[in-house]
Write a structure and sequence with these properties.
With about 80 residues, the chain is α+β, with helices and mostly antiparallel strands. The protein has two helices and two strands.
Length: about 80
């Protein structure tokens, strides 16, 4: 991945592997104490938003990566791109 990113003049950002990306609400930042792997969707007890496990984790990973390289608040494009 690093080699391809370098070839395309892109940046690969590594985040802590223990970052609780699935258990953290991407809307308000509330962190659940535990979240079983079989749970694919959960409601935040703080803000009541419904979080799909994978999409929520992706948003949190994007935010942590962006803040790591000081990009600030980075929003995902609304257009899906097939790779």
């Amino acid at each position: 991945l690093e080699w391809i990113a370098k070839k395309k003049n892109k940046l690969v950002v590594f985040i802590d592997r223990w970052c609780p990306s699935s258990k953290t609400c991407s809307d308000c930042g509330h962190v659940l104490e535990s979240l079983d792997l079989s749970v694919r969707e959960w409601r935040c007890p703080s803000c009541q938003s419904v979080n799909g496990r994978d999409e929520n984790a992706a948003r949190n990973i994007q935010a942590v990566g962006a803040s790591t390289v000081s990009l600030g608040n980075v929003r995902q494009s609304q257009t899906a791109i097939a790779v």
